[in-house]
Amino acid sequence: MSAKNKLSLSVQYADTRLQEALPRPKIRRWVQAALFAPAELTIRFVDAAEGRSLNREYRDKDYATNVLTFAYNEGEEFAEDEPTRADIILCTDVLEKEAAEQKKTLEEHAAHLIIHGVLHAQGYDHLDDEEAAEMEGIETELLAALGYADPYA
After folding, report:
1. Which residues are documented as binding site for Zn(2+)?
2. Which residue among 67, 71, 95, 124 is the one 20 to 30 A from 51 at the CA level?
3. 88 near 12, Cβ under 8 Å?
């Protein structure tokens, strides 16, 4: 691993339902694939109640969403070797529901959402069409390199 992609990763299973299906080494591989700089990240799996509470408190949206990214040094100027710091929250209930609706495996959908969250942590966004196209292109490319289908196909 290059110094550029140095990673400190914590994986928390507050909701333990996916702990066996999505073990830490698999998650680490997905995170590492999406890193363009050093990072200190926490990936946390939560149930619908915690997901809804966090989304309501921090985004004023009263529902559980699939992934929330809390990037702690977003918009700050920091040294090239200083790590990106973020918490990425995945809601198990929403993840399972969306995977079924989209006819994807749980693993495929989780890989996509984790990569999506890691990109958000590094400053990528999808607020306009141009940003969305760039972010989706990166996600598709990274997922293909990991052996997963285009999530937007």
Report:
1. 116, 120, 126
2. 124
3. no
Q: Where are the alpha helices (DSSP H) in 12-148?
A: 24-33, 48-59, 92-101, 106-121, 129-145
**What three-state secondary structure class fits 18?**
helix
Model pLDDT for residues 47-71, shown as the tens digit of each residue = 999 999 999 999 999 999 999 999 9
Residue 38 CB coordination number (10 Å): 19
Q: Map tokens 């790590």 to a residue.
A: 83
Tens-digit pLDDT profile for residues 10-58: 999 999 999 999 999 999 999 999 999 899 999 999 999 999 999 999 9
**Count of helix runs (H) and strand runs (E) in the chain:** 5, 4
List binding-site positions. Answer: 116, 120, 126
